[in-house]
Each structure stands twice: as C-alpha cells, then as structure tokens.
Design goal:
Helix content is about 5%, strand content about 45%. The strands form 4 sheets. A 16-stranded parallel barrel has the order 13-15-18-21-23-25-27-29-33-30-28-26-24-22-19-16. It has about 525 residues and is mainly β.
C-alpha cells in the first residue's frame, strides 16, 4: 500500500470515529457539520432531582461558543426553568432522561415574560433529539375543580338556549381553569434548520411546541401527551413557517394537535405586517405559511386533530396523508377567518372519529370543517380554494361542513371516496344541532342553531362529490336531516353517491338543493 493511500484511509477512519452533528438544509443555507465532544450537563453541575437551570444553560452556551455539538442530558430527572437554545446546538435527551419543568413560576423569565422550558430565537441548525422526555409539570398550574368559561357567544342563538352550557354545571370534558402558568413549552422563533426527533413532551401547561417564522423544520417520531382537560395545550403549532415535515408522531391534548396558522405574536390585530420578520437574521422571510407535509401520525384532540388557517398571513401548499384522528371534538378544520387566503391543500388516507365534547371547546363534532367568515368587523374574509379530500373514513356526531359567504365563497373543493357514518353521542341532546364558526363576526354567527345534514355546503364555486357513502345510526334526533344539502353552490358535481337523509327525520331528503344545480357525471 503506498503512503498517500495509507494517509487517506487513516483520515476516513478517524472522521468516522468522531461524533457527528448534522442538520437539514433550508433554502439558501449552507450545510454545517460539527465534530465536537459531547457537553454533559452533569459535568457542569446539574444534579438529579434539583433545579439545574444555570448549569444546563452553561453547557448550551459553551457548546455554541465552541462551534456546536451535543448538550447531553443523561438518564435521571433534572428540574429546570427556561433554557435558551442557541445556534448549532443539539440538545440530546438520552433514554430515561427527563427535563422536568419547575413548578415555581419565577424560574421562567425573559424580558418580563414567562417562556416555557426551551426557548430558541434567531438561530440556525438547532435540534432536540433522543428518546428522553420534556415534562412541563402543567397540571400544577390548573384548578381542576373549576371550568374555564368566558363570554364569547350568545346562548339565545343556540338550539338549547340557556340550557347550552347551563350555569352551575361542571363540564367533565373541561376545559379547566388556569391559575398562572409559564409560556409555551418548546419554542423556536425565526430559526432555520430545526430538528426535533424521538422525544416525548408531556403535561405542558399550554402549547407543547410553537414553530414561529421558521424555515426548514423536521419533526419526526415524537410523542406529545397532554391533559385533554387543559385548554390551549396544542401539540405541534406552526405559525408563518415554511418547508415543514412532520411524520410518525403520536399527539394528544386539550387543543389542536397539528396546526399551521398565519398569525404573528400579535394575533388580534388585522392586516398583514412583516416588520418582525425583517428584524431577525434567520427564519421565514416570505409572507406565507407554506410547504407543509404531514404523514403517518395518530392524533387526539379536545378541539381539532388538524387545524389550518387563522391569521393574517396566507397559507398554501400542504399535504396530509396516512393519519388517524380519534376521540376528537373536530377532525380537520380549515378556517379563513381573516383576510388571508388558504389554497392548495390535499388530505388523503385519513380515518376520523369525532364526538361532541361538553364545555367551552371550539368545534361541534364535525369530521371536516371549512369556513370563510371574518372575525373582524368591516373586514372581508379570505378565500379557501383548491382543497382535495380523498379516501376518508369518518364516524362522527356532526356532518361535513363547507361554509362560505356570498362575499367570501369557497372555490374548487372536492371529496373523493369518502365514507361517513353519523351517530348519536352522549352530548347530542345537550350540544348538538348547532354550527360552530368561532371566532367569527357578527356575534350571532359564532355558535347558532342549524339542522345537520351529512354534508352541508353553501356559497361554493365548484364542488365535486364522488363516491360518497353516507349511513346513519339509530335514534338520531330530527335535527339531523338531509344527506347532502347545498345552498348557492355553482358547478356542483355528484357522482356515485350512496345514502339517504336521516331516517329518523320526517323532513329529510337524500339531496336538497337551493339555488343550486347538480351536474351528475
């Protein structure tokens, strides 16, 4: 063997023996490969069972200053307040490792605010990996003897009137009352190349994760287990982010499981504003939440399994496939309730099982919900267009809702090979027979009485229904009515529709059309 070949082989063997830290690459970013030693938090003073925030933070700081690498949490439980993750750092939780959130609210602080456990802003090449757990200690910040109730709709517009969420009743599905809590448990703001894999996140006091203004996100194989009674305990919540891949995740909690929204930190001010994006080096510099793919996930939610929309930034180009949504208050929800448009979405190979939840949760048991209605006075809602649903098998306590307005019609919506079984549930009498459009303006449109067809559509331009199989369970109230009902739908196409109206209603029809003409293929 000659000398040059020997040197080459030595270099290859040496490089392969050194720990390697790699990240996915967002558009315009260069590959970064780090070959550094691990930074073990116990070597910086962290002690199992004790508050370790400053010691873990020191490990993160030195890791980043050294050019990057792994900050390793070994097996054991380490209590922490807010940690600030930095560029080129991989926070690695080994098997049996637990980062447990402190129950002292004073251990969470940042410029007068209270973030959760991991906070990362304006960074690149950041990751959380391993098979350990982040435990938010969320139940410690709630009063489980009281419900979370607030004034957001007028009971007089509901079917049940004052009996809807009757005063003095305790709502067993929650939500329960928050006392005081730290912020979202894992937050990435304005980051490029974010990876979260393998870990478990549990018992978070509000959102488990927020991916805000990020570009290049991979979330794979994580588990989120939140208390279904806790309000706002979202799973993976992405806001104005792009190039997102989510796969092989198991998520349950007391709010939406997987979310892509278009609102910035200030979600209550109408109008598109990109000022914040310009103040940061990294992250999504476009106006869009876009390019999201979600596959092979199991979801359970006290609100929606999948939620798309809400906010001033437009959303586009998303696919969802091979997903199970079960025991949820709503299956898939798409909401143009601001001026921003939502377009080019595909949902395929999805099993959905929904039920009505008591208490003040958004949703009314719909397996699929699309609505365009503004939540701000004087502002027209954006459009929802080019949305496909294929190979959907649903069992629910409410029908499919496709709800546009004259000034904000939906466009080019298709259902292909959808099976829907409608059933009566424990809360059908107390909560059923209403349409829930929250948040919406005017107030009378938030939550209001309405008959429930298998599929209800209004103000849609081009609606295609192919291979729709509808069945009804026994003892359904008479407010469950028609099989398919359409109002002001242009270019309605129906092919191979099997089913009828609710046999328990004397006024039900297989197909009821108002100001609509059907084109049977």
């Amino acid at each position: 063997m000659n000398f040059k070949l020997s040197i080459c082989l030595f270099v290859i063997l040496f490089l392969n023996s050194v720990p390697c830290f790699t990240q996915q690459i967002a558009e315009g970013e260069e590959a970064v490969i780090f070959r550094n030693s691990d930074f073990l938090i116990t070597e910086y003073g962290s002690i199992e069972g004790e508050l370790s925030t400053p010691f873990i933070q020191k490990a993160i700081d030195e890791c980043s200053a050294a050019g990057g690498g792994r900050v390793v949490v070994p097996a054991g439980t380490f209590i922490t307040g807010t940690l600030f993750l930095k560029s080129n750092v991989n926070l690695h939780l080994t098997h049996g490792a637990v980062l447990k959130g402190s129950t002292n609210i004073n251990d969470y602080s940042r410029e007068g605010r209270s973030p959760g456990i991991i906070y990362c802003e304006d960074a690149v090449n950041v990751s959380i990996t391993g098979t350990g757990t982040i435990d938010g200690s969320g139940d410690n910040f709630y009063d489980f003897s009281r419900n979370h109730v607030y004034d957001e709709f007028d009971k007089s517009h509901t079917r049940q009137k004052n009996n809807y969420m009757a005063e003095g009743e305790f709502y067993t599905d929650g939500p329960v009352k928050r006392t005081r809590a730290p912020g979202m448990t894992v937050v990435f703001f304005h980051c490029n190349n974010v990876i979260v894999t393998g870990i478990t996140i549990k018992d978070t006091p509000i959102w488990a994760t927020r991916i805000g203004f990020c570009d290049g996100v991979l979330i794979d194989g994580i588990t989120i287990k939140n208390n279904p009674l806790v309000p706002n305990s979202d799973g993976i919540h992405c806001t104005i982010s792009r190039n997102i891949r989510i796969s092989n995740c198991n998520i349950s909690g007391g709010d939406d499981a997987i979310v892509l929204t278009g609102f910035p930190k200030d979600e209550e001010t109408p109008g598109l504003n990109t000022t914040e994006q310009k103040h940061h080096t990294y992250g999504n510099k476009t106006i869009y939440g876009e390019n999201m793919t979600v596959t092979n996930c199991v979801l359970k939610s006290s609100s929606a399994g999948i939620r798309i929309g809400y906010g001033q930034h437009p959303i586009r180009r998303c696919t969802f496939s091979n997903i199970v949504i079960y025991d949820s208050n709503r299956g898939i929800g798409i909401f143009a309730h601001d001026a921003a448009n939502i377009e080019n979405l595909i949902f395929s190979n999805i099993i959905i099982e929904t039920r009505l939840h008591n208490g003040q949760w958004w949703g009314n048991g719909e397996p699929i919900h699309l609505s365009a209605i503004s939540r701000f006075d004087g502002q027209k809602a954006g459009s929802i267009k080019n949305v496909q649903f294929s190979n959907i098998n649903a069992t629910s306590e409410h029908g499919i809702l496709v709800f546009g307005l004259k000034e904000s019609p939906l466009e080019n919506i298709s259902f292909n090979n959808v099976r829907l079984h409608m059933r009566k549930g424990n809360e059908t009498t107390n909560y059923g027979g209403n349409i829930d459009l929250r948040p919406a303006t005017p107030r009378a449109m938030q939550l209001f009485e309405h008959d429930i067809p298998g599929l209800y559509a209004q103000h849609v331009n081009k609606l295609v229904i192919r291979d729709f199989d509808l069945t009804w369970g026994p003892d359904l109230p008479s407010f469950f009515t028609n099989g398919i009902e359409c109002l002001n739908v242009n270019e309605l196409s129906i092919d191979n529709y099997t089913g009828n109206g609710n046999p328990g209603s004397t006024r039900s029809q297989k197909l009821k059309l108002t100001n609509t003409e059907v084109q049977t293929e």
